[in-house]
From TrEMBL, chains A, B:
Cofactor(s) it depends on: Mg(2+)
Catalytic activity: adenylyl-molybdopterin + molybdate = Mo-molybdopterin + AMP + H(+)
UniProt-recorded name of the protein: Molybdopterin molybdenumtransferase
Similarity remark: Belongs to the MoeA family.
């Protein structure tokens, strides 16, 4: 690899990613709303209708004119005439005049002439028709107005929003049964390294099974992409070049999880460098773990060269891979970090972002982050960890008791 | 419904659910690990192997005997003879004697006789064979021991754990390619109410589209179950009874989201009461929203009668439905709540748990929860909300600035 690449900071790289890959636009696909959970909206959703579409009772009781109840109290009830009962899902047949009321259930449509509903608990029916009302209601009370839930023409949901159960319910509510979401970005995952074998194989001594293809596939799924596992590619220039070229043709992005040997790194670096213009954009990031990260662009598609250590590969993909997936999804939301306090002093070198694996302990509602120590080659440290805490480049560590944001892994 | 049911507290009901439905045991099914993300482990996973299985270098450098470097420094380097280079994925051909070293890459296997690795940065190779070492290493330094990542026979993952990307990677690493997970609980979802129509239909005035079937399906998926939407069932005893009976036969649990009218509630209540012993267990919970909740057991299968209001149905299913799904999954983990401070005073009646919809604002790393006001009949309030905050029964409200736990919805 050329030697003139300057090691960049994480924030510089993130900013550059948005610049270099800003052309990665979401592509829409229409899905039934029942398949829409966790998908990202491709377009704003404008409501085609009012919801509920008619004035609707929010309680069980009697529809009436509020003015007929003014001054009503336990001691001096208002007296109204009940002229009928409103059926659910029906347009009321009656029109209320002064001094009249109609029985109504929660969700029932208000009859013409009514402007409010008195709760059944605040009334007494004497015989069939005479209603005592013990509490005054104001106009609009206990009524869901025709456009109170959702207004026709309002922006119900914004593009870039990830659909939750309630969003899908709201779409159903206004009659939208299919929705345009961003196509899942296809992320090609390649593992390389002569020491690697497939998980189903029995490794000979000196060999090791491919872990990164599986951790990275899982992260791609979590971030809303579709993993395309190419498996283990032989550690030669030709084999790797061919695989990456195929990956660029089939995927929106290619991730190569480097074997950890010098030789493999060299081959990976050369292949990425030879994919064409503009080529390698980043070679080396001031972050731990994950310094030897490579980011390139081949025909406008991102190629990410990750370190071979399982922890490094996950952490780096969680920063840069996720950023690229979000671009292609058009995802506008952030990831919610969990607040905790650091349980121990932890040192870090200034000038480098450190990602510390941590477990979480809850005590009296307070979450404490405890560092999980161990080499970044140990997948078990990520299994024991609940997330990571970032130590910014400008800090030389975090003291016990300091508040921290935990990225859940 | 019989009148003798006592309104129970949320915690009482939760405890009772574990008692009444403690017989709901997870059922295992074997899936390929690549389909395992977010599934809950049916059994402990014991590692069949050591990982990495051999002593492995954690860095690029030279394998050697640590004692040969004792006292080495910039001023007084140790001098060793390089007797070869270790190929990746190979069993080293050499055996190191005193004063000897072998080139090794990250991930390479240590040769016999070596107990540590010196980093390449701390050495100088003079000619082909003479190695200057400027820094002493201790035994084991820069080596991942044969069982340092995962030990043969250790419990790698516990039953009841939800699989994350790193867990799947660790399974791959020890050669486990298929894993036993809990079958997804099948949750039958029934909507009833004469005012309801399917989302694809054009409602007549007075009618409204079915929202709850869709919000509840989404929650079931989020909680790890499989929704079986039975759609809108006519609001008659016979139609509903038949649907619920079919639901009990086909599902692990039946959820009826009641139409909101008195008539529908009565029919739902009678049907649930007639399903057989032990029948209705809870009728009324001191919670807002969601007081008219019904929980029954039909042949040991839970039947949950939810209020018709979209917000109430979601909140109540999020409490009790999730609890039952977790039982059937054997899920042991909790849900991580997000810490925030309340942004406004909010009142609540003592003796009743209140669930307040809130949005979240982030400011200088501090999350503030702002109540989203509005009737529980408005799905739009859940769309605007980011989660809920619980006000316990013993409290009469939460003051501005008080810390709260947010359940993300």
């Amino acid at each position: 690899m050329p030697e003139f690449f300057k090691v960049m900071s994480v924030d510089e790289v993130k900013e550059k990613i948005r610049e270099w890959f800003g052309h990665l636009k979401p592509e829409g696909e229409r899905v039934p709303i029942e398949d829409g959970l966790d998908r990202v909206l491709f377009e704003d959703v404008i409501s085609p209708e009012n919801l509920p579409g008619f004035d609707r009772s929010a309680v069980d009781g009697y529809a009436l004119k509020a003015e007929d109840t003014f001054g009503a109290s336990e001691a001096m009830p208002a007296l109204l005439e009940v002229i009928g009962e409103i059926g659910m899902g029906q347009v009321p047949a009656m029109c209320l005049g002064s001094g009249q009321a109609a029985g109504i259930s929660t969700g029932g449509m208000l009859p013409e002439g009514a402007d409010s509903v008195v709760m059944i608990e605040d009334t007494d029916l004497l015989g069939d028709k005479t209603l005592n009302i013990y509490k005054a209601v104001s106009p609009g009370e206990n009524v869901i107005r025709r456009d109170e839930d959702i207004k026709k023409g309002e922006t119900l949901l914004k593009k870039g929003h990830r659909l939750r159960p309630q969003d899908i319910g709201a779409l159903a509510g206004v009659g939208i049964t299919r929705v345009d979401v961003s196509r899942r970005p296809r992320v090609v995952i390649i593992s390389t390294g002569d020491e690697l074998v497939e998980p189903a194989a029995v490794p000979r001594i000196g060999q090791i099974r491919d872990i990164n293809s599986y951790t990275l596939s899982g992260l791609v799924q979590q971030y809303g992409g579709e993993p395309l596992r190419f498996g283990i590619i032989q550690d030669t220039y030709n084999a790797l070049f061919e695989a990456v070229e195929k990956g660029i043709a089939e995927g929106d992005m290619v991730v190569i999880s480097g074997g950890s040997s010098v030789g493999t790194r060299d081959v990976t670096g050369r292949v990425i460098g030879d994919l064409g213009s503009p080529g390698v954009l980043v070679h080396g990031v001031s972050v731990k773990p994950g310094k030897p990260t490579i980011i390139a662009s081949a025909g406008g598609k991102p190629v990410l060269g990750l370190p071979g250590h399982p922890v490094s590969a996950m952490v780096i993909f969680g920063i840069f891979g996720r950023e690229i997936i979000n671009l292609k999804l058009g995802y506008r939301g952030g990831s919610l970090k969990v607040k905790a306090v650091m349980g121990r002093n932890i040192a870090s070198s200034a000038g480098r972002e450190d990602y510390i694996r941590i477990s979480l302990i809850e005590n009296h509602g307070q979450l404490t982050a405890i560092p999980v120590l161990g080499k970044s080659g140990l997948i078990s440290t990520m299994v024991k960890a609940r997330g990571t805490v970032k130590i910014p480049a400008c800090k030389e560590g975090i003291r016990e008791g300091e508040p921290v944001d935990v990225e859940i892994f």
